[in-house]
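Hi Y.,

Following your request, here is the sequence exactly as I used it, all 218 residues.
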Amino acid sequence: MLHPVICIDGPAASGKSTVARLVAQDLGYIYVDTGAMYRAFTFLTLEAGHDPTSRPRMKQLLEKVDFQAEIQKKEITLREANRDLAPHTRLPEVNAAVSIVSALPELREYLVNLQRKLRLSGPLVMEGRDIGTVVCSDSPFKYFIDACPTVRAERRRQQGEKDNLATRDRLDSSRASAPLLRAADATLLDSGKNDARALADRIVSEVRARQKPGPTVP
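Below is the corresponding structure, written out as tokens. Let me know if you'd prefer a different format.
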């Protein structure tokens, strides 16, 4: 059985992760950060000494890697050969290369298939860059969260991360495979003008309203 998915897309530092977590908590859904999956493979690519632009190297990595994505306590956990990958996903070198690695078609196909299988686990709040356009394009619940570059840059600074957002936006939006796009039927939300709690409340309210059963026919 495929469970419902709330799709939350947006560029780096748009605030989508914070909103997605709040929505998942409020609804009791599973929270899935697909960006962490791409970061995990970026780390594995760099750790192996592979060229992050090499499709053959990525194919080799995918053929031999023991990658596990499991649901624990309503969140996705990522492991490689039982090693927790979470501590490695926010490293500066991973941050710098993730948009390059995530553009490789072989990796995107591998992870999209994995992400779709997660719909068998229960209702999801899935956030990323291609959830509403590719991964779960059939979902009726699609949101695209964005903010102006100044707001996003300040968030990164407060997080203590160095990130060239303009470069990441260009790479994410121009890649041949599943570029960052707002789905035609996605609701645009500005996280620079509204805080995360307000945006989460709006999404939760809309989802609950649309999931209400219709009137009983006599």
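The two ends are 30 Å apart (CA to CA).

Thanks again,
Q.
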